[in-house]
Amino acid sequence: MTQSGTTEATTKFNAAPLVADCHALARRYRRIRSFTESLCKPLVTEDYVVQTMPDVSPTKWHLAHSTWFFEALVLAKADKGYSWWQEQYKYLFNSYYNSIGPHFDRPRRGVLSRPTVEDIFNYREEIDARLVELLNRIDSASPLLPVITLGLHHEMQHQELLLTDIKHVFASNPLRPIYCEQLSRATTTQLPLNWKAYDAGLVRVGYAGSGFAHDNELPNHQVFVPPFSLATRLVTNGEYLSFILDRGYERPELWLSDGWVAKTSQNWTAPLYWQQQGDQWQYMTLGGLRGVDASAPVCHVSFYEADAYARWARFKIPREEAWELAASDLSIEGNFAESGNYHPVPAKEQTGPDALCQMFGDLWEWTSSPYVDYPGYQPPSGPLGEYNAKFMCNQMVLRGGSCATPQSHIRPTYRNFFPPDTRWQFSGIRLANPL
Amino acid sequence: MTQSGTTEATTKFNAAPLVADCHALARRYRRIRSFTESLCKPLVTEDYVVQTMPDVSPTKWHLAHSTWFFEALVLAKADKGYSWWQEQYKYLFNSYYNSIGPHFDRPRRGVLSRPTVEDIFNYREEIDARLVELLNRIDSASPLLPVITLGLHHEMQHQELLLTDIKHVFASNPLRPIYCEQLSRATTTQLPLNWKAYDAGLVRVGYAGSGFAHDNELPNHQVFVPPFSLATRLVTNGEYLSFILDRGYERPELWLSDGWVAKTSQNWTAPLYWQQQGDQWQYMTLGGLRGVDASAPVCHVSFYEADAYARWARFKIPREEAWELAASDLSIEGNFAESGNYHPVPAKEQTGPDALCQMFGDLWEWTSSPYVDYPGYQPPSGPLGEYNAKFMCNQMVLRGGSCATPQSHIRPTYRNFFPPDTRWQFSGIRLANPL
Amino acid sequence: MTQSGTTEATTKFNAAPLVADCHALARRYRRIRSFTESLCKPLVTEDYVVQTMPDVSPTKWHLAHSTWFFEALVLAKADKGYSWWQEQYKYLFNSYYNSIGPHFDRPRRGVLSRPTVEDIFNYREEIDARLVELLNRIDSASPLLPVITLGLHHEMQHQELLLTDIKHVFASNPLRPIYCEQLSRATTTQLPLNWKAYDAGLVRVGYAGSGFAHDNELPNHQVFVPPFSLATRLVTNGEYLSFILDRGYERPELWLSDGWVAKTSQNWTAPLYWQQQGDQWQYMTLGGLRGVDASAPVCHVSFYEADAYARWARFKIPREEAWELAASDLSIEGNFAESGNYHPVPAKEQTGPDALCQMFGDLWEWTSSPYVDYPGYQPPSGPLGEYNAKFMCNQMVLRGGSCATPQSHIRPTYRNFFPPDTRWQFSGIRLANPL
Amino acid sequence: MTQSGTTEATTKFNAAPLVADCHALARRYRRIRSFTESLCKPLVTEDYVVQTMPDVSPTKWHLAHSTWFFEALVLAKADKGYSWWQEQYKYLFNSYYNSIGPHFDRPRRGVLSRPTVEDIFNYREEIDARLVELLNRIDSASPLLPVITLGLHHEMQHQELLLTDIKHVFASNPLRPIYCEQLSRATTTQLPLNWKAYDAGLVRVGYAGSGFAHDNELPNHQVFVPPFSLATRLVTNGEYLSFILDRGYERPELWLSDGWVAKTSQNWTAPLYWQQQGDQWQYMTLGGLRGVDASAPVCHVSFYEADAYARWARFKIPREEAWELAASDLSIEGNFAESGNYHPVPAKEQTGPDALCQMFGDLWEWTSSPYVDYPGYQPPSGPLGEYNAKFMCNQMVLRGGSCATPQSHIRPTYRNFFPPDTRWQFSGIRLANPL
Predict the structure, then answer these.
(1) Which of A274, B233, C158, D139 is at 20 to 30 A from A233, Cα to Cα?
(2) Are C297 and C347 in contact (CB under 8 A)?
(3) Looking at CA atoms only, how far is residue A253 from chain D in angstroms?
(4) What is chain A's alpha carbon radius of gyration, rounded to the nearest angstrom?
């Protein structure tokens, strides 16, 4: 976790503090932490408690765990004789860091009525005070700064998870609670599906800048990319409905073997949160139950569904290096969490026919790349080595961020990852066409 | 389903209204309903939401379901065009009455953050008002009165379940929350284990009075009971510890075959809620974590453990008719929910050496009688037929009520029933000795 | 049981040897053992190996385990320094006798290709020789004789299990192998369903003779039986089809709660081995796939189905003491294993309108009595105490024997027992009508 | 794949028949088919029937399914009105080809006692006759020839599976049957672990010859390979024991997260088939139970164990393209199935210090490459498209063949694949060292 002019083969979870000095970092800390709290505004106390499936965490757990991160990995490391705010929180809000100690069983997070929501807001307040106090007494060369910076990116990841999880909580409830009002949108016309072509070539992949990046984006390295073209927009609900109507969920020849097993055992007949009302399809959104918008991108599909759709459409899902190559010179603009919409929107007219849209924001885009380490990758030592490295198996890479991702969290080199049957994230499909 | 001079073979879920007239019933209604609410006083909002295992229901579910009972089985039956307070509650808070309609999946009760606790207290208030208004306009011959009376006994059952469930919720939490302060008690001496003998004879079993009784206590009928003697008190923690120390949990010859499987697969090494701290045993109570009191009755054991203990002690578990014979002339006094202690207490000195103590209150006593219908039993028609009858398989009868049972809820003929591996109820052991 | 000076409360698993002396016992031994082997005649080597579900054992396991019984419980007890024929068989072919030692995991019996079928026939031959040799050198007062007698009844139980298990093996095979030719029968007319009435009374139940009986039939004791009448024949396929056509499998109000769960999770829509071919129903028999015979008794139903059928028909399933009372003065005649038919046959015209038929043989008849110990029951000490006693929970009693039971195995007091969801045994339904 | 004017993006499952003409193919057909049968020589009938876990198939199923391949994909395609030898075999012995029709449930293969072993040998004989007859009447341009060639490679895959599966069957049996006598070997000294270094470069990967190759080895394409060095031999049992002794199975920081879950839930404490006898380790081999040979390569480890070992040793598992680059100029020699040893042997002295040994034969070598399609890959149309393509998810690539692989089956470009928790294959570990 050094920095400095390291060579390509040296991996570090970040390359530089997010901001130049401790005061700026403290300001950023407060801004990001309070954004988390603002996301809780629409919730009542009961909403913070519930866990609807093992992958989902209660809101209050997110609030506590992201705080735990600063306590366990910053405050407790900074002071020899550090005294935990509540000794038991060390165990209760550890997610999976074996090097820090045992942790409460993940699928049981929803059985804890205590600590209360109020207790946890108090916890946040207390740790925030301690953290800012710490920032006042260390200098910007302190090795704690990169960890605090990482903690803020960790906080942003949990902002997104908080949203995806509360959506699952609300969608599991027959009362269909509403999290937020969404802009009612005039029906838009669907943009035509165009393609942008790329030549084969030896390119560099992975983070090479001087800002923050996760360890799994490193080291920057060479890859040979064969020629391909990339769809200029995401697959829409309307297009995906054609796949459903063409019996896409009933034809094993369109599916990976494991995908067919997942589909069958979990009774998938449409994306997650879809339901049929007579002839009409509706879906649950954070704005409540709504009619499916044909021109909006299809969302809450697993990699298996993305792959089956691509096979049906006679295209492919892109590899992550192709996606990164295409994204590398785009500006990071799009429909992010800051919009407060929390739902993907239809692609808008672009300047040229092969201009890529929706690359950032709207939906995480499944790639056909299994999540593995880059050549020369070395995980950080200690607990931070558990952040990303131990998950490099049985997962697929997703790129680009979503409507639930904070804008400043994303980079062209950012690698998100989930198992191929995951559906509760804001995940969608962009097609590729090998040339 | 009223009474009248029915013959023995006619079964009815109750034999007479609990009280003589509507006004008295309304008063009783308010008293029982508000006792339920008083049990919630120690809880914070988060505590109402959590479900720690499929058998446990969230507190707010208990509050809503016992209200639903009056709405679905009284109000909605009373008025042709009855309009539900909330249409979806009909489905959400139905427990298992197929004749009323589909119900929300039981093991998923804990995923519902809404309706909120406040919504549900409002629901109670509204239905209470409607019910009292109904009682004002019907007369005491109305067939609704027995159903309302049943509803109050149903409410009392859920008062007990609310307590057993919140105990499970608190005991599942490493923070060990405390529900109530309990009297600190001076250590008492354990009474000697005496026996009271009974001759063989043809006796009558089942309810024969003119008050309320559940359908499963009917009809009153003849049974031949062989000679037996009954222990004058419950098995104590101290005695049960001897069983543990004698490797009772490690010797298959002491166990029923299914019991051994349950013990092994669920890793039982002591009663539920016990934990070893060095050489000392502690247990979780509604008053928090406490040292095991050797002279208090052993609690939270399954029928399998009761049966293994009895085999080890070279005695038997009594049959329900023997228990009922012994209880039939005792007054219904003991350590009930009204004591606010919610924990069993040691047996106290009695008038004579073979006086039975702890027969009512303290702990439900496992019998060795599988729960089946009495000869000539006919379940009520309609939804009330689902109240008891369909559970008459794979369960064992328990008798006598517990420290979590309201006193006015219990009778000598009262039959509680649970599967033989059940441990989260306040269940204990009384030995019998066949002669 | 009474006799031989003992008091009622003294239980033992048998009261007298099946035959008067060792020579007669040796002859009986050879006869019963070779009947087992004759049941294997229709099998090819592969058929002996397969286990189609945990309850089913491979044929070769039955052959070995019933031999193990004589080796473990007779030969090894008879001689201090007894040397096992194969040391590992002690472990491999122990079923569940913890007091003898560990046993190979039951659901894994079908993974053992070795010992071979030939090895096991050699095992039988060797143990038979040793056993007969033993009988030559002990006298008829030896305590081993009752154990040998029990071993022969154990052998007969496994003769029946061998047949029920091979039926399951063949029915699991799409090639539908045939075990035996059955008599083709002219279609018979269904006898009318008549009732035989019995008065209430205090009766004696349990074995009271001087021959062999299982410990669970003891002691003979008094029971008060309320008035009842019993159907003169078993429920037929034709009658059961009416239940199916009346949507009996789709109406939860007809089912016990646990029965509905079993039905739903196991997808029952008809008795086991039934399949619909267009409009016609067929079932698998040991004579292959055949059309359902409307006048033959319905077979391979669980207790849950028997109970649901009885509720639909507005009758009851009889208690075991009522059945025993009715059977006590009947001669033990019927359609047993010796007929070589291995399938129930329609009831035949009787001498009088209320003469009971099919009480013995044809099908085991579910009773509504949970399998518990009789008052005063004491299990034998040592391994034989594990034979019956530890299963006295969560099972229902069946009476009367079946077409797969050897005739000399059955008695009016005989208590078979299986969990209420069991279907692969030859089990049927006789109705009762409480008066 | 050849090229032959085609572009790189054109994929086909094979590029040329294995042999030049039909007569030669018929000879090869007979040779390969009879090798399968020769592998069955040590078996008794019972051994053919048993399935010890879902991944294992009974020997007789392998014999039948590899025959089914020729009937379903060659004979039935060759003649319009083809009549199956046994109509039901089409269903019974289909493995997973949805485009051919439904198939018998894989985990239930072991419940089928029929068809008998003899039936299946007859089936083989009949189909062999039909196939050779077919080869007599078609010419070498027939499109059936490549399918027959594929069928022979398929047969060789099942030769290996037959061996791995019978090993699992024998190892599951406490009697520890022996499949074959193995040469007793003098203890050899372990070769030092040397490294062979490779420069970075843009290389071609995938089959480019004119013989047979599987579709998943195509197309030949460019990949950039960073610099690396490869261990000159496999990891030995002795080295792996050091990992065990260093508590490798107890330290979560050494494991992938999914690996730790697999290890824990499956109770791994050593490679599959290892058992501790006092201080000594033994393992089950096809030659029976033997002491662990410290200088022989460690075998029957999952990818998770390989990866944990590499992390512990501070090395990496190589990517498949690195392995292929290193193997591309080696001759295909090693310890293959033809040796009749069926067990890996210690590495032997090589000509130079960085000469690679054990690259072919001995053990399949885990790579750290998830099994995905090569750029430009197109699966064959029809059933052969199901052969490889649908499994390209959640599996890892293995390279080099094993002691159970027929020598003529393997190529430097050959890609085997199994899920990362697989242990019953002959799989081992070769380390890599990124430079």
Answers:
(1) A274
(2) yes
(3) 7
(4) 22
- Residue B329, phi-psi category: left (phi > 0), alpha (psi -120 to 50), beta (remainder): alpha
Once rounded to an integer, what is the mean pLDDT over residues D80-100?
95
What tens digit of pLDDT does each residue of C395-411 get?
Answer: 999 999 999 999 999 99
A234's CB contacts (< 8 A; 6+ apart) are A297, A298, A344, A347, A358, A362, A363, A365, A428, A429, A430
Q: What is the ipTM of this complex?
A: 0.94
C-beta of residue D333 within 8 angstroms of C-beta of residue D355:
no
Residue ranges of chain A whose pLDDT lies below 70: 1-20, 183-187
Q: Are D295 and D238 in contact (CB under 8 A)?
A: yes
Residue A87 backbone dihedrals phi, psi, to 5 degrees: -55, -40
Q: What is the pLDDT of residue D140?
A: 87
3-state helix, strand, coil in chain B (%, to 5): 35, 15, 50
What mean pLDDT comes out for the span C105-111?
Answer: 97
CB contact under 8 A, C393 and B257: yes
Q: In chain D, which residue's Cα lies nearest the Cα of A392?
A: D256
| CA atoms B188, B193, B198, B200: torsion sign | positive
Q: Write the residue in B98, B258, B386 that is nearest to C393 by C-beta.
A: B258
Query: CA-to-CA distance for D390 and D370, rounded, in angstroms?
Result: 14
Indicate the angle between helix axes D237-245 and D303-312, nearest 10 degrees: 70
Cis peptide before B227 (omega within 30 of 0): no
- Contact of C357 with C236, CB cutoff 8 Å: no
Q: DSSP E strands: which ranges in C270-371?
A: 274-277, 280-285, 288-291, 364-370
Q: From CA A211, how far away is CA A218, in angstroms rounded?
A: 12
Provide the chain A residues 76-105 that lie in CB contact (below 8 A) with chain B: 88, 91-92, 104
Separation in Å, CA A434 to CA A197, A316, B60, D160, D346: 9, 8, 56, 36, 45
Q: H-helix or E-strand containing B373?
A: none
Handedness of CA D109, D111, D113, D115 (dihedral sign): negative
| Contacts (Cβ under 8 Å, ≥6 apart) of A60 | A48, A49, A115, A117, A120
Q: Which tokens go with B38?
A: 């008083």
Task: Kindly report the pTM of this predicted structure.
Answer: 0.94
Phi first, then psi, for residue C398 (nearest 5°) are: -120, 150
Question: Tokens at residue C208, please?
Answer: 């009271």
Q: Residue C332 pLDDT > 60, yes or no?
A: yes
**Closest to B110 (Cα-Cα) out of C372, A173, C142, D129:** A173
What span, in angstroms and rounded, lies between the C-alpha atoms of C393 and B397? 13
Q: Is the link from the previous residue into D219 a cis peptide, with omega within 30 of 0?
A: yes
C positions 117-136 inside 8 Å of D (CB)? 117
Asked if B85 and B126 count as a contact pair (C-beta separation under 8 A), the reply is yes
Q: How many CB atoms lie within 10 A of CB A187?
A: 11
